[in-house]
Batch of 3 targets.
Target 1
Amino acid sequence: MAKKTDTEVPINGLYDEGGKLKGVAEDVETEDAVEEMETEVSLSQEELVALCKESVCPGCDVYKEAEGVRLRALADSENVKKRLQREADEMRKYAGESILADLLPILDNLDLALAHTDNLDAACKNFVIGVDMTRKLFLDAVKGHGLERVEAVRGGDFNPEIHEAVGTVEDGELSDNQIAQIVQGGYFLKGRLLRPAKVMVNKA
């Protein structure tokens, strides 16, 4: 069989001018593309992330916008978690608020009973002692749940944040805006004002 030379014209169009069979390059390129696609599909998550980092420029606007959205979403999620935690803590801390508020009238009545014992005879002395002991036991019990009495004494300064003025009096022994009388005791529950102390305020 005669050897094909460089000057020979391709037979029936099967060869190109370089002497290579037509269509071979296209087939090779197609096979390479298929192999490349199979390689991409079989990439692991770490490899995909690495490819993304190589392909996306950290300085481009698209990357910056996506990063901003991601950071805002993380911040919003963290804020929601903190708010829910605070609300749960508040709920646990003040769970007994309504119950303790309902018990305050009992303390008020015990205080009222002890306030009118000055003119009682000796026969009632044991009764007064019993009432006073009951009041102390009751106070100790509610203190264990965070209940504390608001400071309000005759001659003390009126504080609108913890005192409620129910009237005014003129007492020459006191200065202006001082407490002249405690009408009803006030209470804190774990540092939060549960009920202000009701007082009469002196107006000189």
Target 2
Amino acid sequence: MKVTWDIFCTVVDNYGDIGVTWRLARQLAAEHNLAVRLWVDDLGAFVRLCPSAAAAAPMQWQQGVEVRQWPAQWPAEAVGQVVIGAFACQLPHGLEQAMAAQPAPPLWLNLDYLSAEPWVEGCHGLPSPQANGLRKMFFFPGFTERTGGLLREASLLARREAFDAEARNGFLLALGVEVEAGARLISLFAYENPQLGSWLDALAVDPCPTHLLVPHGRILGDLGHWLGEAQLAVGAVHRRGALTVQVLPFVSQDDYDRLLWCCDFNAVRGEDSFVRAQWAGAPLLWHIYIQEENAHWEKLEAFLALYRQGLSEAAGHALTGLWRAWNMDRPMAEAWQALQPHWQEISAHARHWRAAQAAQPDLATKLVQFYRNSL
């Protein structure tokens, strides 16, 4: 009998929560021979990432995973041997009682948000005793050996390596993208940002032509304001100076990976696309999820302190300046121009960082090992 894992996801905002849990569920089922049930409270968001799914189905099978509609109350069925509450979500009513009633209570894990902050290493794997006698364990993804690692399928880097120029051209043509010779290809997936205009102004006058690919999302309002267009249709192409802007449809996770592989620079947001851009091995710009009282700045600085190790002082300063400008509402033009002399160095650094992260066990593997050690 396969071991059953129940993963619970509340879609709070955007697609980061469901993006992470859907990738994790697929990998646990495909690579670790587990029976995985993914419980989602907003199947409409799930369909955006998995177009073959049905938004109204209370139960369906997708890519080896049993996807279930989040129940108002836990149904009368067996609890899995592992229960994961993603990102501190509240479990369905009655589930904790069902867990406590088991002869051998399941391993209860809180899969937390990704962070490079130093305190994460000390909290990873710690228990939190509950009033009902259960123990909830904290599991932190991260970038160091003493954390839970990053999501990475076993075949990911091999597929990335096999994605050659011919595959790249075919993928872009299927999206209706034709890039002029010598143009730099950039992807942009971000939250609303008032500094978008200053960055686009810089790209428009840059000596190097740029083709900017913008998947459908929240940044389109700011992009339309800069272009003077109230509505930006998918597939529309706009040109201003050296800059070509093209709006893409919202694509599946696998196609988004390929889009990142195609590009010379990737501006990403949140958690899921942030990690996938690192596996793409190209320079990137992270738009971190905004928190009250700018608490997200500490997380940004913690990652920058880690990521810039190995860069020259000048390149590290330029990269840090760009990320701070994008996330702290500062003009982007000067920061973008300051990065250009270091392009080759930051490109090589992105590949070195990918290799260093790939040398560590991935998140799914560490979760499975954590479960085995708990038996």
Target 3
Amino acid sequence: MNIVFDFGGVLFRWHPPSLLARVWPHRVADAAQGEALAAEFFENYAGAWGAFDQGLIDAPTVIERISARTGWPPEEVAQVVAAVPDELQLQPGTVALIEGLKQAGHRLFFLSNMPAPLADHLERSHPLHQWFEQGVFSGRVQVVKPGVEIFELACRQFGVEPESCLFLDDHPVNIAAAQALGWQTLLFRSAEQASQELRARGLLSAAPQSVRQ
């Protein structure tokens, strides 16, 4: 099986309300306020941040546009952007899952909406080439999930057919897009849940040690 991993929220921590609570304690009083501010800041990954993900604008421009739209001071917006690399902490349970899948003989790839500077950071900081044969970062190819183009590009680049791929992502809209193109899918909620589902599908023979209870 060709198993394709999303990154943010799957292999790497990505929880914008908590990120904003850490960076902007003066603005985030509780979880509900963190959710509201995250929705306003990232615009559901459309708007300026979506253009950043797609490689259409750089970090100074995304800061300028978010500040202009919201009225937040540009230096505060810049603090959030600068804190994103530290937010993307590796999730050990997913690493154990990857290792278990490799041991089972599956081919592993990745497909991530990620601005180019953050893609560079992840490649410098982690052995992605050891875990995955290949991968696609949206910021380098200038197309994003859930668009059809990025899934088609991934299949061409990986040299695989859609129906031979199992896609793990934490966003239902991306899962739905992949399903519409004939990919098999698994909505990722945790490494333990994904491990259980993969075992149920016969793709993983035993739970990786790190995600056992």
